[in-house]
Amino acid sequence: MKISDLVKQKENRQLEFKVELPAAEKLAKTACAFSNSQGGYLIIGVDDQNKVVGVDADKVVEQWGTGFNKIHSIMQDYPELAIEIDDESSFVQVKFIKSKLTQETAQENTKEMVLELLRQNPKYTKSDLMRALAKADGTIKEHIANLKKEGRLKRVGGTKSGYWEVGKK
Question: Rounded distance, CA 115 to CA 136, Å?
Fold first, then answer.
């Protein structure tokens, strides 16, 4: 999609405007949000009212060399997203592209990590898995349900006194 078309839209789950390159924490938050949806666009040099304010040429030289490195560094934490950077004279578009293949790979990796953690400690609770994997409750429940359905995981005993039995693939 063309930047000129994007600037006419309101911010939403897949479109974010920033006047300048955000700090690493805010950039990571944006990447995480796009990772949890279908990808999206970060437009730098546009304010929240869709006004093109441009980028400060002096800042571009000093901030963007490290800024683009910052974007690439942060993106390593989100393997399910690829990025494209389109540098125009008055603003920059960073496109976060959600890859179906990497999304499936990430989900498979999470399932394998759940199994490995439960092999190491069969008494782990869902809360323990959430903390260890930094995943939401729903994500852990979904992976456990899928692993049970595949016959790779079984709960033996009750919630408090039971344990997980990990089967073979």
Answer: 17
Instruction: For the full predicted model, state whether its pTM sits above 0.70.
Output: no
**Do 94 and 145 fall into the same domain?**
no
Q: Is 133 in a helix, a strand, or coil?
A: helix
* CATH code where residue 160 lies: 1.10.10.10
What DSSP letter does each residue of 134-162 carry, written as one string? Answer: T--HHHHHHHHHHHHHTTSEEEES-TTT-
Residue 70 corresponds to which tokens in the numbers above?
């910052």
**Residue 132 lies in domain:** 101-166
Residue type, 103: Q
Express each pLDDT in 131-158 by its tens digit. 888 888 888 999 999 999 999 999 999 8
Instruction: Find, among 88, 101, 81, the residue nearest to 14 by Cα.
Output: 81
Say whether both 66 and 130 belong to one domain.
no
Tens-digit pLDDT profile for residues 93-137: 667 666 554 555 566 778 888 998 999 999 998 888 888 888 888
Contact yes or no for 99/82 (Cβ under 8 A): yes
